[in-house]
Amino acid sequence: MTVKTVDLGPCGGFFFPADPQRVAIVLPGAGYSIQAPLLWFTREALAAENWSVLLVDDRWDQTGDPNVWALARLDAALEEVGDVSHRLVVAKSLTSLALPRAVELSLPGVWLTPLLNRDEVRSAMAEIAAPTLAVGGTDDPTWDSGFMAAVPGVEVLEIEGADHLLQVPGDLSKSFDSLRTIAEALSAFASRLE
After folding, report:
1. CB 125 within 8 A of CB 114
2. What share of the chain is helix, strand, coil (3-state, %, to 5)?
3. Does this model's pTM top 0.90?
4. Which of 123, 125, 130, 158 is the most buried (most CB within 10 A)?
5. Alpha-carbon gap, residue 36 to 144, rounded angstroms
6. Mean pLDDT of 94-99
7. pLDDT value for 111
8. DSSP assignment of 168-184, as one string?
9. Contact 110, 43 (CB under 8 A)
């Protein structure tokens, strides 16, 4: 496996090359790193579909405006990726604050545990026109099943009993099943982006 370390300016990253015209940007959560299971298998699922993947490697230090932090990571990654035929944003939790920019740029996206308890995320989610997959758990306080069911044009994957990590606390088997289900849905979603 080839991997290239990249300097994105505000943070670092890792680039896994495949199809040079299809690049996915994977943004971490505030404390959920790119090495954590969900994002690691996100990269694996995208690689299996021959997408190049840029993993943005950073953690929010709990200071400053989280909107500015998330947006700076997305903008830096987009600059690094450059002008390619297909771009895809995958964001976990706090980096869903970059959703308004993705909507503005009509970027397809996978939003893992988007912060639907934040007005800017809800508003942007309601305006999405590009292909979108939103993933949340029924036991995640930032997820809103009713709201997502009413958003037209968004593919929704809801994991019963899953928390904000998209795991089912106390049930290892269901947590593994959740990870598999999400990776397979992400792979299928990415394969349709032509």
Report:
1. yes
2. 40, 25, 35
3. yes
4. 125
5. 24
6. 97
7. 98
8. -TT-HHHHHHHHHHHHH
9. no
